[in-house]
Design goal:
The protein is mainly alpha-helical and 471 residues long. It has two domains: 265 residues, no CATH class; 91 residues, no CATH class. It has a three-stranded mixed sheet, with helices on both faces. Bound molecules: zinc ion (ZN).
């Protein structure tokens, strides 16, 4: 492995080419399935059209979308804004950047003799995107305007806030009129989204209830390009990419995990690189604020995931809240203007307050929600849309974590078998049938079949161990 080029190693790590087309074939073979890109917003369609992607054919949409590599694209865009990124490596062949389904939330860093490989979790994009939409919906006008200006400066796109003054009037009216019910729905959606990332490595689908269909396969690009959610998630994912580039910049040795103190200090160092890249860049103050608010949002989300059990190895990795503290301290001691510090503080306090409100107003906090797979399974039975469940599972395989997904499916199969032997109700019978159908349609895909078998065997042997211990 050590003599392979970074691109070759990246290919080995993602090995999803065959896997993707295999799952797509299964979806297609299921007959008149729902179109893959059905719910795509028109703005996104237009955007894709401009990129030369055909939007009339769902298959073509996905074929093109899965080639879209968001961290790589963001890296290219970041290099244009932050000149210090241009000389991280001597030649671009030394750095390969891509997505894999099983990477950690923070991304993974590999050092080879030939260069570096950075991989990012595929589902992190959909997750941060949906969450940013929900948090963004609760922000005030100053927040939205600052993010829109930062977004416009960083992408070179026109500032729609200035062009469409009328929007701010409409948004203001919507903010004022927001009723308690709406807030608690939003809060529940946000909590579910946190939970679903720890369960399946991707965002859940808020369309499931309203539109009665599986999630569109738009590779995490949903969202309105003029809205604060898109701006916030762009800057949050930028920070994620900048952190990993920090490891490249310091030429860190990933084998340091054997030395916890060193490993923790290199994590902090990578964060500091990301923060200083933003603070010291020759860009305007608004763009800096937007970048720093994105960093805050990313770390804030990481704190919540840690609370839900999605923690990095605590011995070799600093806690997300320690990383958040470092961000605040780095900004406080930097000689950037007081205006940047002041606006940053008020915007991030707002995000933290929204997070608290979501936890308080949601009818169920994330930790009390049942597992995403189980919830969607029984939800689809309750709403009489059982076919959507099987399709949803197949789509999650493409953008979420197949490992986690198969683990839950194997466990569920085991639990339902036990239930059917004892006192099954009609819903359990249907649920078991649906799980069996997932097994059946994926039986020729050896990757999934193995994962499902292992999960099921673990569930069985876990039960046996427990029985032995008690007996
Ligand atoms: Zn790191």
């Amino acid at each position: 492995m050590i003599d392979k080029t970074p691109e070759e190693v990246l290919k080995l790590l993602s090995h999803r080419g065959g896997f993707n087309s295999d799952i797509l074939r299964i979806i297609a073979n299921r007959g008149p399935a729902r179109p893959l890109g059905q719910e795509m917003p028109w703005v996104l369609k237009k955007q894709l059209g401009r990129m030369g992607i055909r939007t009339d054919d769902p298959g073509a949409i996905f074929e093109s979308l899965k080639r879209l590599n968001w961290p790589k694209q963001q890296y290219e865009a970041l290099k244009r804004r932050y000149p210090n990124l241009k000389c991280l490596v001597r030649s671009e062949n030394q750095l390969a950047i891509g997505t894999t389904s099983e990477a950690r939330f923070n991304g993974d860093y590999y050092k080879l003799r030939t260069g570096y490989v950075l991989t990012f979790p595929l589902g992190a994009h959909t997750f941060l995107r949906s969450l940013a939409e929900m948090f963004g919906a609760m922000t005030d006008l100053v927040f939205r305007e600052t993010m829109a200006r930062g977004f416009s400066e960083s992408t070179g796109l026109p500032n729609w806030w200035l062009i469409r003054k009328i929007r701010s009037v409409r948004v203001k009216a919507a903010i004022n009129k927001r009723v308690k019910d709406e807030v608690s729905d939003l809060a529940y959606d946000a909590e579910r989204t946190f939970r679903s990332y720890t369960d399946i490595g991707a965002a859940e689908i808020s369309w499931f209830r309203e539109k009665c269909g599986p999630m569109p396969l738009s590779a995490g690009m949903f969202g309105h390009p003029l809205e604060v959610g898109s701006h916030l998630s762009l800057f949050a994912t930028n920070f994620l990419v900048l952190h990993e580039l920090g490891h490249v910049n310091h030429d860190h040795d990933p084998r340091l995990v054997n030395d916890p103190a060193q490993s923790i200090s290199s994590e902090f160092q990578a964060d500091r690189f990301a923060i200083n890249t933003i603070l010291n860049a020759p860009i305007g103050e608004i763009e800096k604020m937007a970048g720093l608010v994105g960093a805050f949002f990313f770390l804030y989300v990481a704190v919540r995931l840690e609370e839900l059990g999605e923690a990095e190895d605590a011995i070799t990795h600093p806690s997300a809240s320690a990383r958040l503290d470092q961000l605040l301290e780095a900004l406080a001691t930097h000689d950037t203007s007081r205006e940047v510090k002041y606006v940053f503080t008020s915007m991030t306090l707002q995000l933290a307050r929204i997070g608290d409100l979501f936890r308080k107003e949601s009818m169920l906090p994330a930790e009390k929600l049942s597992n995403t797979v189980r919830r969607i399974l029984y939800g689809s039975i309750e709403f009489n849309m059982t076919q959507a469940f099987v399709e949803q599972v197949l789509r999650w395989m493409l953008i979420g974590s197949p490992d986690k997904l198969c683990q839950y499916l194997g466990n569920l199969k085991f639990q339902l078998e036990a239930k059917l032997r004892e006192e099954p109700d009609q819903r359990d019978v249907v649920a078991f049938g649906l799980i069996a159908e997932v097994y059946e349609v994926t039986k020729d895909n050896f990757i999934i079949r193995d994962k499902l078998d292992i999960a099921y065997r673990n569930a069985v042997s876990g039960r046996e161990t427990a029985e032995q211990a008690s007996g």
